[in-house]
């Protein structure tokens, strides 16, 4: 299914490029953009929470945030009017690129990197650091 979609989307993109109008009027434009940014914020919050818990699912969440942020950045850049709005979109893209890079670093890290290399996962910040372990072979 994924390979077939990849193949089918190529000619479909050509059809869209040839037939869609250059401009259009859109209902609920602001709601769409606010919703997208709130989705990114929620994803960042979820990723941060999972990282603090040393949960390996943070990798999946971070990958999703990177993808959604890339889509947001793309649409910011291609829909901005020339001039000041376009300059602002480019500046925002720099920040969004940093977020994408941070998320990809988390998403592509091995489990050990996700669990131990981050300062917020150090024993000093762990809620479990004050507890006594009763597991066999524990120090």
From TrEMBL:
Is Acetylation among this UniProt entry's keywords? no
Is Membrane a UniProt keyword of this protein? yes
UniProtKB keywords: Membrane, Signal, Transmembrane, Transmembrane helix
Write out the transmembrane intervals: 33-51, 58-75, 87-108
Q: Which residues form the signal peptide?
A: 1-17
Where does the record place the region Disordered? 115-139
- The identity of this protein, by name, is DUF2637 domain-containing protein
Q: What species is given as this protein's source?
A: Nocardia panacis
